[in-house]
Specification:
- The protein has six helices and no strands.
- The two termini are about 35 Å apart.
- The longest helix is centred in the first third of the chain and has 29 residues.
- About 75% of the residues lie in helices and about 0% in strands.
- By secondary structure, the chain is mostly helical.
- The chain has one domain.
- It is extended, with a radius of gyration of 20 Å.
- Keywords: Membrane, Transmembrane, Transmembrane helix.
């Protein structure tokens, strides 16, 4: 988020869209690969919608062509997009993966979460009893 804000202040919106669109399509392809892997490894699980495997395989063929062409034609834009997305890795390790955090880090994360909720007018549902007015 911080990297996005810096790019928004320095450049224009269309540049940011170009940077992140590569990653967006990369995520689409990984999702389709996950669908195929689940169909192969766990064929018996419940699926509300089941499509012929020819459709996702065809999609992956076109996806791979477009992704490779994008990497070939604009490697700098794709690289910057990857860097923007990889800035979230330290946040993941600090917030999710690191289980035995000191209390000061937990308090900081909780205060940032509360501040973000107030800023965006959202509240994460709590597990307690709802308060009545």
């Amino acid at each position: 988020c911080l990297a996005t804000l810096i790019i928004m202040l320095v450049g224009d919106t269309y540049t940011l869209i170009n940077y992140v669109s590569f990653i967006n399509y990369l995520c689409y392809g990984v999702t389709i690969i996950g669908l195929i892997v689940l169909r192969w490894k766990k064929p018996k699980i419940f699926r509300p919608i089941k499509v012929n495997l020819l459709i996702p395989i065809t999609y992956l063929a076109f996806w791979a062509f477009l992704l490779i062409f994008s990497l070939y034609s604009e490697p700098v834009v794709c690289g910057i997009g990857l860097i923007i997305i990889l800035t979230g890795v330290p946040v993941f390790f600090l917030g999710v993966y690191w289980r035995n955090k000191p209390k000061c880090v937990n308090r900081l994360i909780e205060s940032v979460t509360c501040w973000g909720q107030k800023l965006c007018f959202v509240v994460y549902p709590q597990g307690g009893v709802a308060e009545e007015e």
